[in-house]
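Chapter summary example: a protein plus flavin-adenine dinucleotide.
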Amino acid sequence: MGIHKTDIVIIGAGIIGTTLSYVISSLSNAKVILIEQESKAGVHSSSRNTGKVHAPFMYDPEKKKSIAKAALFGYEFWNNYCRIKRIPFKEDGIMEVASNSEGIKTIYKHLEWGIRNGLDKKDVEILDKKDVEKIEPNVNCQTALVCNKDASVDYGEITRALANDANRNKVNTIMNAKVTKIKYSQKSNEEIYLKYAKYPDTNEKEIQCDYLVNAAGGSSLGIANMMGIDHDYKSLHFRGDYWIAPHKYNSLTNHSIYSIPEFQQFPFLDPHWILRSNGNREIGPNACPVFSQYGYNTKTNLKEFLPRVYEFVKGSNIKWVKNLLFKKEILKMASSEMLSSISKRHMISRVKKFLPSIKPKDFVTKGTSGIRSNLIDKNGEFILNPIFLNSNNTLHILNYNSPGATGALSIGFALTFKLIENGVIKKDKEISNTHFREKLIMDCIKEVKI
Ligand SMILES: Cc1cc2nc3c(=O)[nH]c(=O)nc-3n(C[C@H](O)[C@H](O)[C@H](O)COP(=O)(O)OP(=O)(O)OC[C@H]3O[C@@H](n4cnc5c(N)ncnc54)[C@H](O)[C@@H]3O)c2cc1C
């Protein structure tokens, strides 16, 4: 069989790759292939998360402007989309609680950030202890921020609905197909050749494309490395575990409840009390260091242990390890998070501080763990924003972490309009061909600068 030719290949049918395939195919006639190693879309981070449509009050408007704006527009995008597709979109809101003076200062800072990021004053407010008792009598805190522009959804279901829409737009989705090699044509840097192994066949297959989008989630840095893309990052993986609460706790609160993170310099929140869109209540996630982007269980982690240690200590990488390990705060955070993974009591006691009536022994069922792959730089510092790395005719989406699912449609539109502006694709179709209002899309691409 000859080589399959196409205009654009997107690697990874997680929420961002799938959204991008849907938006590109809604606005352009470019031929798109979406290639995914699993048997269906969205089975990794895009299904293994907290399911929050995050209101943007926790994001510094100076340092995280784009993701804050992407999250702000995400609320209306997902609300519309879920209504059209009859997917639950629970407008259940969020309460962030503080019990000491440092935490209270953070709550006021978050109020200011939320307003600066575009939240309406009527949607976010600060409550004192007495007012909290009126609306959440089981919550113990001194001060709280309440925001009603925060919702619960199932991002896995959303990703699969988007994949169906993309297929209707004639995106060619190839499942069970793992990309194993990528190279440029020897004649020019314009043609890209990809090899992939299609389960259960044994033969490798090949595609030629003019433009490649790497949206491989936790594997995206590996794909960039496969292409020899110049960068200065390493990837660390952190597993977030969850515990499902028994039904008797279902009416304990009306909102999801978050506390002020103990380690605010890192890109993780402390375990929270979660209202799920299916009605479940859960506690989680922590952020336990693991050895693989797919290290959901001990077996995978043990298998990845030696290759990972080797990768880190070979050659100049040793400097990175030193820079990372000399940071006392990182070690403190990692040991606390590992303890929360080993000990249910430790994890649940972090939530019990603000929800005193819960008992660790009542939590008997684990939820679905998910893995965040965070990039660090040479100095061992965490990269806080997603990275959209352009190199020749490739785009690499790296470090696409929370609130990545909330912001996926906003980022999908912003990236697609950039591809149009740069002449990679032509705009052949009207915006009315998408599910969304023209004004919402135009406001979004004006504000979400990437
Ligand atoms: C514990 C946790 C909680 C979170 N909570 C929230 C939240 O409440 N709200 C929110 O907005 N965000 C949340 N996030 C973040 C959000 O889930 C992610 O930002 C988002 O899902 C990332 O999507 P993605 O498409 O980049 O990655 P993924 O969903 O991981 O998709 C990447 C895809 O690429 C495929 N792939 C990889 N390599 C190859 C290859 N070689 N060939 C073919 N296919 C390949 C993978 O199989 C995978 O399907 C959370 C994340 C985690 C882990």
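Key point: The radius of gyration is 22 Å.
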